[in-house]
Amino acid sequence: MRYRLLAATGVLALAAGLTACGSSSPSTGSSGGADPGTAGSGTAPAKLTVWVMRDSFSDALLDRFAAGYRKDHPGVTLDIQIQEWDGIGQKVTSGLASNDAPDVIEVGNTQVAEYAASGGVRDLTDKIADLGGADWLPGLAEPGKIDGHQYGIPWYAANRVVIYNKDLFAKAGIAAPPRTRDEWITATGRLDKGGDQGIYLAGQNWYTLAGFIWDEGGDLAVKEGDTWKGALDTPQALAGMDFYKKLQALGDGPKDSDEANPPQIDVFAKGDVAQLIATPGAAVAIEKANPKLAGRLGFFPIPGKTADRPGAVFTGGSDLIIPEASRNPEAAYEVVKALAGEKFQLDMAKEMSYVPNRVSLGSALSGSEGTAAMAAGAANGHATPNSPNWAAVEAKNVIKEFMTKALTSGDPAAEARAASQTIATILNTKS
Amino acid sequence: MTVLGSRPAATAAHPAAPGDRAVRAVRAVPRARRARRRVRRVPLNLAALAVLAVSVFPVYWMAVTAFTPTRDIQSTTPSFWPAHPTLAHFATAVGADGFGLFWRNSLLVTLSAVLLSLVVALPAACAVARMRWRGRRGFVLMVFIAQMAPWEALLISMFIIARDTGLLDKLAMLTLIYFMTTLPFTIVTLRGFLAAIPGELEEAAMMDGASRAGAFRRVVLPLLAPGLMSTSLFGFITAWNEFAFANALIIKNQDDRTLPVWLSSFGNIFGTDWGATMAAASLFMLPVLLIFLVLQRRVVSGAFAGAVKG
Amino acid sequence: MSLTSVTQPVPAAARRLARAWPYILVAPAVAGTCFLLLYPLLRSVVISFQHFRTGELIRGGAAFVGLENYRQVLGDAEFWTVVRRTFVWTAVNVALIMLISTLVALMIARLGPRMRLAVMSGLVLTWATPVLAATTIFQWMFQSRLGVVNWLLVRVGLDGFQGHTWFADGTSTFAILVMLVVWQSVPFAAITLYAGLTTIPAELDEAARIDGAGPFQVFRDVTFPILRPLFGLITSLEVIWVFKCFAQIWAISGGGPDGATTTLPIYAFQIAQSLHKYDLGSAISTLTVLILIVALIAHMRRMLRHEGEVA
């Protein structure tokens, strides 16, 4: 303790010297100072920071929410910050560990457990009734609940569909969207002509690969008794990878990066790409990037092996958490309540085509082509292997690197064996 | 290095020494041999051109791409000269969210760190180069080991320290860290320069009645100017580039981010727009280049001469 | 030296002040180093003896586990692979840097004044290129579809490089990183060596030549022995810089593909920041510093001996 104090004075002394050099003034007294607008004084003016992931929502939607919130809660300023997916684990952990954390954070539904286990997330169990929790989507509520405590508040769900460019489909003479994998490959091959790309599929889009593997009856990893086994080297998984390779070749997607790098939305927005695999909400960003495409986009579920059953998809979605270190927990809860509330949920469902957090709001989805495609796919939804170590498999890019090698080297089976080995090692590590 | 340090400052005073030698040699030989010599120099000059091309090409390529319209960048045959030069990419880069702000933050942090580092390093370098005291060797060893510090490994302890002192999310903390990353090199280099300035000059000035501080200011400081400039240049480059701490310690105050953090998300901002990406890289490089141009040859020869004697 | 020579018979208090001067002058530097380097370093070492994960970072209260983290790190085969790779990485880079910069320095010394200025300016331009900018440029040059390198290779008849993905393969990513680091490091080493060359009296050179020595022998018998300390200094600086190299590797490959470019600093960063195992990451960092110190101990001893002579 004494060391810490010593260091603190030293650093502060140096910082004080700095101020003289014209640097930004460090507020030396803030470390133990009073927290403005905390519990009890909910009406005091406060600035709340909300972290939302890139491309989760359109700017217009967020602006609308912020404006409405300001009107209903005078004195509260919302600072909505867009976070990049790259390195988000480190960022959120730093936020949770700081003294002045962001007040509300969007977290992928599968990641709530990891953050909650660290003790930095506020337990919101007593608010379930207030938020209408009886009606929550299980796919969002369950992952947000750890040992009977609700840390993550369900926000929205979505799964991937195929977004297509109607003009390019018409040009290639394709009247109806494909309904089986064979039709899909044939159609994409016809679209991949001249300067146009049949499909833009980055080499490391592993959620899409997972869907193909589930279609074949395989999985990413399986638990046998108490030990995990990587399953990328099973015949089913290799068949899924083989299909991915065939599809990926019908466009210019880079084999060595994922869909975020470069952002696939920007690539598609150029107008010479016929198809894209994304959540329906991506269409909003595409139309914003290239207004000429407005109204020219269509949607269909990822085709399965037979026409009667769409392709399997990963059920994705987000929860909201409030860090323990938020200086305005009461005010933060009000924001969560508004974001999880009916008004925003309906607005969001309409604009972004997401599935709302409550089952009873599902009717809001009917009518839009994107959501119809998504709902059809959702019937065949899957989740990633249920292990607290799964985050480490993702962080080490095991599947992504396997995909690049399978796409570029001659022996996918050997690469799959090596990757499965790595997955097993990670999943069986005691943390 | 003692061996070199004891020599007169040959480099700075006669930067063209080998050239002189060549001239002398040429004069001494008859014309026929001179011609033969010129022929012999052809491969040498070709090698020089190759070195020049390899060292310049990447930067040249960046500049060309930054000025080339997207249509030409996307074509299958690259153009090695912007046939239709455009400033559109620079407009995109400058117009991107927060570019000006982050640029300013970077400049502020970098300049403060370099200045602080000079102010702290100069007295220390004097003590090492000019005075005899117990613990001097230990101090030199500490400075050398400090150069080996694995900075990225200190991320988490720096985070904890910043948090416990209320300096998280503050540019001041970044400034302090950059100050520390440049300090060891600054001390070592300044010491090399000081060692090359004869102590007799100061003594002579003091005989004439100048105070110790006055002698230092009027005699040593002017001679030290190139050294100060070249070390600050090195410090500038180091701090200007730093990414890991800027990324880890600025969490909630997004307006306090620095340029490298912003640059690292190039892909997220410009996507496949390589023109804008290269324009942004050019703008990132610009301050360093400007400083080089302003301080020019004096500093460059000084920088490396300092290192020789360091 | 100047301190003692000016001392007149002065009062004891003044003499004590004079003796205190060097300590006053180095005090800020020492204080800065203690608080901003030594203290964080100590904390990092302490963490390496604790169980310190996300929970401990947020809640505090980490428990000491003795050497458990070190046992885990040293018992992991991957660690030793990474150590080996780091040595290969350092050796390849430093060897190339020293070889190329020696050749370039010798070449500059023989050039005409105008050509010399041109080459030096080119080198300085390279040296001035910020790391992140250089990294981005190299990514662009080696881009698979529009990159100038693939275009060039196809142009000279290697059609196989049409759309070649350089960063998919471990060896080629490693090679590109070596190219990048060597490209960035040669200017400093070459110009410093050239500055050293200019301090060698021309007569020594000529005398050796008259004795019938070829250019290689002149270098081996005259140039190199004189510049040996300078070679030592530059080599050890490059060893430090290349061994610790982080930003370039992280920005281009993040240690991949499949760990082919994971060196010790990258490994420590991945373990600590991506996997949130701060304790193991700290242990790896501590080991990294120890390895570096051992590798450079000979140089440090030589340096300290020189300090003794100067004093």
Automatic annotation (TrEMBL), chain B:
Principal location: membrane
UniProt domain ABC transmembrane type-1: residue ranges: 103-295
Membrane topology per record: Multi-pass membrane protein
Domain of life, per lineage: Bacteria
GO cellular component terms listed in the entry, alphabetical order: plasma membrane
Keyword Transport (UniProt): yes
Xref: SUPFAM superfamilies: MetI-like (SSF161098)
A single GO BP: transmembrane transport
Keywords for the protein's UniProt record, in alphabetical order: Cell membrane, Membrane, Transmembrane, Transmembrane helix, Transport
Residues passing through the membrane, by range: 42-63, 107-127, 139-162, 174-198, 219-240, 274-295
Subcellular location: Cell membrane
InterPro entries named among the record's database cross-references: BP-dep_ABC_trans_perm (IPR050901), MetI-like (IPR000515), MetI-like_sf (IPR035906)
Record-stated family: Belongs to the binding-protein-dependent transport system permease family.
Name recorded for this polypeptide: Carbohydrate ABC transporter permease
Lineage, broadest ranks: Bacteria, Bacillati, Actinomycetota, Actinomycetes, Streptosporangiales
TrEMBL record, chain C:
Keywords, alphabetical: Cell membrane, Membrane, Transmembrane, Transmembrane helix, Transport
GO biological process, one term: transmembrane transport
Main localization, broad class: membrane
Cellular component aspect of the GO annotation: plasma membrane
Subcellular location, record wording: Cell membrane
Membrane topology qualifier: Multi-pass membrane protein
Ranges where the ABC transmembrane type-1 domain occurs: 83-301
Transmembrane spans: 20-42, 87-109, 121-142, 174-197, 230-252, 280-298
Superkingdom of origin: Bacteria
Family in the record: Belongs to the binding-protein-dependent transport system permease family.
Protein name: Sugar ABC transporter permease
